[in-house]
Specification:
Elements lengths: L14 E5 L7 E7 L2 E10 L13 E8 L11 H4 L4 H15 L11 E10 L4 H22 L12 E9 L2 E4 L3 H6 L2 E8 L4 E8 L6 H27 L3
Parallel strand pairs: 4-5
Antiparallel strand pairs: 1-2, 2-3, 3-5, 6-7, 6-8, 8-9
EC number: 2.7.7.56
Subunit structure: Homohexameric ring arranged as a trimer of dimers.
Protein name: Ribonuclease PH
Length: about 240
């Protein structure tokens, strides 16, 4: 089938990382997956949550939000509504888990790295773009700590990236834009480390249940997509060495 943006079914959207987007954050990147754009800022704080004090370990956590006009129609800020929605809670917890999966918290010292992921424009895959960009912002912040002599060892154990896959009109495909996601029979998100291990897999059949063979096809698409994202992350970070 012909996709709305003419891509092959196994092709990522155009992915771009603009490092140093925010001049104040210890790590900052504007990540683009096609028309989806997420600003990921990493802040280093010389403290940990109360439940971790005195343990000598650090913490990595995340917050996620969408600007009011990131989508086709304006949505009110959650801060104005007075509560954070369930979807936001789910996504920011997912981002935090994904990053902690590749960081040795014992080597971080008693400090917190807070990643703020703000969606500037949404066209599908905001959570996967957030995870992929948040990793780049995290690495940038960790390298700054190392340059300043605040870390004796690199706490990174691996890289991490995320991508969406789905079945649209019976066809498995990689990295769905909004139009495809809205029509998908099956919608899945994969979070994968650089060595090919899964941090999280989220999958839902919107209409007909999917088969084991279809699951395998989607898994292979996701693994290939995350490998390519890992290469793009490394290229972007290499420019900042």
């Amino acid at each position: 089938m012909t996709r709305c943006d003419k891509r092959d079914v196994d092709q990522l959207r155009e992915v771009d990382f603009e490092l140093g987007f925010n001049r104040y954050a210890e790590g900052s990147v504007l990540v683009s997956f096609g028309a989806t754009q997420v600003l990921c800022n990493a802040t280093v704080e010389e403290k940990v949550p109360p439940f971790m004090r005195g343990e000598g370990r650090g913490w990595v956590t995340a917050e996620y939000a969408m600007l009011p006009r990131a989508t086709h129609s304006r949505s009110a800020r959650e801060s104005v509504r007075g509560r954070i929605g369930g979807r936001t809670h789910e996504i920011q917890r997912l981002i935090g888990r994904s990053l902690r999966a590749v960081v040795d918290l014992n080597l971080l010292g008693e400090r917190t790295i807070q990643i703020d992921c703000d969606v500037l424009q949404a066209d599908g895959g905001t959570r996967t773009a957030s995870i992929t960009g948040a990793y780049v912002a995290l690495v940038t912040a960790l390298r700054k700590l190392q340059r300043e002599g605040l870390l004796s060892e690199d706490p990174l154990r691996d890289s991490v990236a995320a991508v969406s896959v789905g079945i649209v009109a019976g066809v498995p495909m990689l990295d769905l834009c909004y139009e495809e996601d809205a029509r998908a029979d099956v919608d899945m998100n994969f979070v994968v480390t650089g060595n090919g291990k899964f941090v999280e897999v989220q999958g839902t059949a919107e209409t007909e249940p999917f088969s084991v063979d279809q699951l395998r096809q989607l898994q292979e698409l996701a693994l290939a997509g995350c490998r390519r994202l890992g290469e793009l992350q490394a290229e972007a970070l290499g420019d900042r060495l």
